Predict the structure of Amine oxidase domain-containing protein.
Amino acid sequence: MTQIGTAIIGAGLAGLACATALRESGQSTVVFDKSRGVGGRLSTRRAEGDLRFDHGAQFVTARTHGFAALLRESEAAGQAAAWKDSGDAERIVGVPGMNAIAKHMATGLDIRLGVTVTAVERAPIGWRIDTDRGTWTCERLVVAVPAPQAKVLLAEEKPLVQEIAAVRMAPCLALMATFEEDVPVPFCTRRDPQDDLDWIALNSSKPGRDGAQTWVAHAAPDWSRKNLEETPEEIAALMLPMLCDRLGIHPTSARHVAAHRWRFARVTTALGAPFLRDGSGKLYAGGDWCLGARAENAWESGDAIARDILGLA
Ligand SMILES: Cc1cc2nc3c(=O)[nH]c(=O)nc-3n(C[C@H](O)[C@H](O)[C@H](O)COP(=O)(O)OP(=O)(O)OC[C@H]3O[C@@H](n4cnc5c(N)ncnc54)[C@H](O)[C@@H]3O)c2cc1C
C-alpha cells in the first residue's frame, strides 16, 4: 500500500485545477482517473484517418481572472485559440482538440490514468482508496467526479451525500460524423433549444483542425433522456438522419459515424457553493456541479478546494 499526501479522484478540469495549485505550493498530490487520457468531459475522440471530434465541451469562455490566465497560457503554448469562425471571439478551443487545454494543465503532475477508484474508506490516518489497480492510502482526499458518481463513492459520508443529492445533471447524446465529400456549409455552429438536436458544429472550423470536414451534434436533454439506454450504434443510426436533415444532405453519404453517451453531461441544478468539505478538512468534493454548467465552473471549484487546503481562502 502506498501512502500519498493528497489524492484526487478525477483528472477533469476540477481535479487538474486542484492538483496544479497544490503542486505550485509543493504539496505531494496524486490524481487518479479511470480514462486513458486527461480532461474528462473536455474531451476529443480520434477516429480513422486522423479524424478528431470534440464530442464533449465545444468551447470554453472565461469570466474569472484565474481561468482567463490559464487560457492565455494555453494559447501562448499553442494549445488553445479563439474560435473565430463560430462568430463569437470569446469562444476559446483547445488545439488541435479540446483536451489540449487539459493536457497543458497536466504537464508535470503525477496522474495515474486507467485507474478506476472502486471504493474509498476512512483509515487510521486519512483515507484508503481501493482501485482496480491496487490500494493506496492518503492523508487527504479530493473527489472531483460528476455529482451522481461522487454520491456513490461517498455513500458512507451521509451529510455530504445529502447535500450532493440536491444537484441535478442532464444527459447528452453526441453524434460525430464525416461525409464522403465536403458538404455545402449552411452554418459553422447552430444552437436551437427548441430542436431535438440543440447544438450542431462544424468541428473542423475550429482553429488547428486540418483535413476533412467533421461535424458534431448534441441531442437536447429530453431526447437524450428518452434514448439514453440505446446502444451507441443505435444512437448513431437515429441521430445521423437528424443531422443530415438539418444540413440538407442525404444520410447515405456519411463516411464515418459514431455516437457517445454522456450520462452526466450538463449541470441543471448546481450546489451553489464552490465545494463540499467534511468537518475534519480531510475530505473534499467538487466539480462543475458545485457552481454551474460551464467548464470554467469546474476549474473554479477545483481551484477553490486547493485554496482552502492551503489556507488561502
Ligand atoms: C456534451 C457536453 C457539452 C458541453 N459543452 C460545454 C461548452 O460548450 N462549454 C463549457 O464551458 N462547458 C461545456 N460542457 C461542460 C464541461 O465539459 C464540464 O463542465 C467540465 O468539463 C466538467 O469538469 P469536471 O472536472 O467537473 O468533471 P469531468 O470532466 O467529468 O471529470 C471527472 C473525471 O473523473 C473521472 N472519474 C469518474 N469516476 C471515476 C472513478 N470512480 N475513478 C477514477 N476516475 C473517475 C472521469 O473519467 C473524468 O475524467 C459540456 C459538457 C458536455 C458533456
Q: What stands out?
A: The chain has two domains: 2-43+98-167+270-309, 169-268.
